[in-house]
Design a protein that fits this description.
The complex is a heterodimer of chains A (about 200) and B (about 475). Chain A is an alpha+beta fold and about 200 residues long. Chain A has helices at about 15-25, 45, 55-80, 95-120, 150-160, 185-195; strands spanning about 5-10, 30-35, 140-145, 165-175. With about 475 residues, chain B is mainly alpha-helical. Chain B has a single domain (about 20-140, about 160-465), classed as Up-down Bundle (Formate dehydrogenase/DMSO reductase fold), CATH 1.20.1630.10. In chain B, about 70% of the residues lie in helices and about 0% in strands. Chain B is globular and about 80 Å long. The chains are: A alpha+beta (about 200), B mainly alpha (about 475). At the A-B interface, helix 1, strand 2, helix 2, helix 3 and helix 4 of A face helix 1, helix 5, helix 6, helix 7 and helix 15 of B.
Chain lengths: ~200, ~475
């Protein structure tokens, strides 16, 4: 597998990180990712990431749940096994609302959670690299991917000038989890290049 | 240093002491990484003993049938369903804190939400035991599920509130578990990255799902949390509503009242917060987390207790009034003769309920009492007792004298196995809780860091000068636009 070079800069304050992200992007560097110990509002926008459509997926799952419950119960009670319960109508919609609601919520939640795991590629026994172990503790770790044009020394100096505390150059094998947002080395693309080699 | 967020000085800090991000990690991970204290072992062993007793009690019931319990001709639901409703109610506070307060953007939820959600999950597990074992032939419990079967594909009755319960509670459990666990993933990653021992690296590595803290992941994480909160909010209201339908859709005097759903939900939140107080007042002390679960947290929860306690009180009085106003002799009999009349066989339970749920929480109108830990702890126990008696009153006093006076003679009192089953669920609950506080961070680390610079004591002090700045000055000094 190919080895990529990254310039890793650690910030200890999100207030310093924000302007730095802006300047790094303006200078034309390619930010691979920023690893943070907690969600920082606005950082996704600053990095130019698109909004997630996870909520839309959740809506679709929810609708699926509604349709499943209503469809199934009405099939059971009107065609498969119509029971006479106190002479009440077979198609008694109001009595089905609780189960319909519960299944809507169940489908939406389970579906969204699984989609979240799929999109982020997280699951039990998955191991990933996030460059600095302290990025889950107190550091905000900005990772710049070195392309052919990148001058590492300059990038390191640039990050230091922006307030990064600990800057180093790191080499990583490009496995599937690196560059998930990077079209040329995404998970499926990787397999192709491997096959070509 | 540029400030990102600003919060008024009027609000007391949510994190006390001089803290930075690393200190937060240290403080919250310490109890997980240290060896368990002697106190932990004592508590854990007692909990396991209770659990064992519960297992024996349930085994007796399975071997000899529901006849091991003193349920009789008219009292078909006794301690078991009382306990079921009680435990389910306990769970509701966790979802309220984690979901509804997330939607309301209440910063104080961050200190208590993790433990409260865990409490929810364990309480729902305990609650689920009662209807399942009450089935008697428990090996046929799966009959409640709609699956293609050899009985002519005979489906369960989807019009029955008892089946709604099956769906409501299993959904509630699943969604609470997902919500809780998805929130835990980043914190487990923190523990994984701090782990020194091999088994810890493995355990937290597997449990944290390979979380990295990438910006894109956080973006999705927040969307997931928000939507799950949005889904859990109506869900939690629906669960106790459906539990109340078990009673309200029947034609038993004392049960078939339309007030039940809101009254049950308010009662559930009331009892749940009491249980959160019981647990956290002790947990914060034992794990030395006073900086994160502050007196402010305790006070704000006491305010909710006095609010919901009063709602419950109004519901009791409304019920009484409507029983009288309806001029229905059976309804009147259930309320005036079976409950309010102190000389009736179960009259005492009605007054325990009133005293513990309506009168005693009124003490929390006094600020000093809201901020007193001993009073809070004592009150939380009282409320838990009172809410248990509420369910007992609703269930037993409505059925022990039915329309046929010849069935009245037997006084329902539980057998040792009924009591043992209830004690056993305490064992189950606390065994789970002790394991939770040992292996998982009791406070949401990432969420505390998120509010630290807004609500941390040392950061709030720095904001003091900001308080006196003009708007334009503030923007010039601290502002920067977030746009790309």
């Amino acid at each position: 597998m190919a080895i990529k070079k990254f310039v890793v800069g650690c910030f200890d304050d999100e207030g310093v990180l924000f302007p730095a992200v802006k300047k790094v992007r303006r200078a034309g560097y390619k930010i691979h990712d920023v690893f943070t110990p907690f969600p920082i509002h606005g950082l996704d926008k600053a990095l130019g990431l698109k909004d997630t459509s996870l909520d839309t997926a959740g809506f679709i799952y929810g609708i699926t749940g509604t349709a499943t419950a209503l469809g199934f119960i009405s099939w059971v009670f009107t065609s498969d096994w119509p029971l006479n319960i106190g002479g009440k109508p077979h198609f008694s919609l109001p009595a089905w609302i609780p189960i319909t609601f519960e299944l809507t919520v169940l489908f939406a939640s389970v579906g969204m959670f699984l989609t979240f795991c799929y999109l982020c590629q997280v699951a039990p026994f998955v191991k990933k690299d996030h460059f600095n172990l302290r990025s889950t503790d107190d550091l905000f770790v900005m990772v710049i991917e070195c392309t052919d044009k990148t001058n590492e020394g300059e990038a390191v100096a640039f990050l230091q000038s922006l307030g990064a505390k600990d800057v180093k150059v790191d080499r990583k094998e490009t496995r599937w989890w690196l560059g998930r947002y990077d079209k040329e080395t995404n998970m499926f693309g990787m397999k192709k290049t491997e096959a070509a080699v | 240093m540029s400030l990102l967020r600003y919060e008024s000085q009027v609000r007391p800090p949510l994190v006390d002491g001089i803290k930075d991000y690393h200190a937060v990690t240290e403080d919250i991970c310490r109890p997980v990484e240290a060896r368990p204290s002697r106190l932990w072992w004592v508590g854990f062993i007692i909990a396991v003993l209770f659990l064992c007793f519960g297992i024996v009690a349930v085994t007796m019931e399975v071997i000899y049938g529901v006849g091991q319990w003193n349920l009789n001709k008219t009292v078909g639901w006794g301690w078991d369903i009382t306990n079921f409703v009680w435990w389910i109610g306990i769970g509701h506070a966790g979802t309220l804190i984690s979901a509804i307060l997330l939607l309301f953007r209440q910063g104080w939820r961050t200190g208590v939400n993790r433990a409260a959600e865990a409490m929810t999950i364990f309480a729902v597990i305990c609650a689920g035991q009662f209807p399942i074992w009450h089935m008697g032939r428990v090996w046929m419990a799966f009959f409640v599920l709609p699956y293609p079967n050899t009985r002519g594909a005979l489906w369960p009755n989807f019009n029955s509130p008892l089946l709604w319960d099956v769906f409501a509670i299993s959904t509630y459990f699943t969604v609470s578990l997902l919500f809780w666990y998805s929130g835990l993933i980043p914190d487990l990653a923190t523990l994984r990255d701090r782990a020194k021992l091999k088994w810890r690296k493995l355990f937290y590595g597997v449990a944290s799902f390979g979380w990295t803290g990438s910006t894109k992941h956080w973006q999705r994480f927040e969307t997931l949390a928000l939507v799950l909160a949005g889904l859990s909010t109506p869900l939690v209201l629906s669960v106790h509503t459906i539990v109340s339908f078990d009673f309200a859709t029947s034609v038993v005097p004392g049960w078939h009242t339309t007030i039940f759903p809101p009254y049950f939900v308010a009662g559930a939140i009331f009892s749940g917060f009491a249980m959160v107080q019981t647990l956290l007042v002790v947990t914060r002390k034992v794990l030395r987390l006073e900086d994160y679960i502050t007196i402010e947290h305790v006070e704000v929860m006491n305010k909710i207790i006095v609010l919901t306690g009063s709602i419950v009180g109004i519901a009791y009085l409304t019920e009484l009034f409507i029983a009288w106003y309806s001029a229905n002799p059976y309804e009147n009999f259930a309320f005036m003769k079976n409950r309010v009349d102190l000389s009736s066989p179960y009259g005492w339970s009605y007054y325990i309920m009133m005293g513990c749920n309506v009168l005693s929480p009124q003490i929390f109108w006094i600020r000093k009492m809201r901020r007193n830990l001993m009073v809070t702890f004592f009150m939380s126990i009282l409320v838990n007792i009172g809410m248990w008696f509420e369910r007992f009153v609703i269930i037993v006093t409505s059925v022990y004298r039915d329309h046929l006076p010849s069935s009245w003679s037997t006084y329902y009192r539980p057998t040792i196995w009924e009591v043992g089953f209830y004690m056993g669920t305490f064992g189950l609950f606390f065994t789970c809780y002790f394991l939770f506080i040992k292996f998982f961070p009791v406070i949401a680390v990432a969420e505390i860091k998120h509010i630290l610079k807004r609500s941390g004591e040392n950061y709030k002090e720095k904001m003091d000068e900001v308080e006196h700045e003009e708007m334009s000055e503030f923007v010039e000094k601290h502002g920067h636009d977030h746009g790309a």
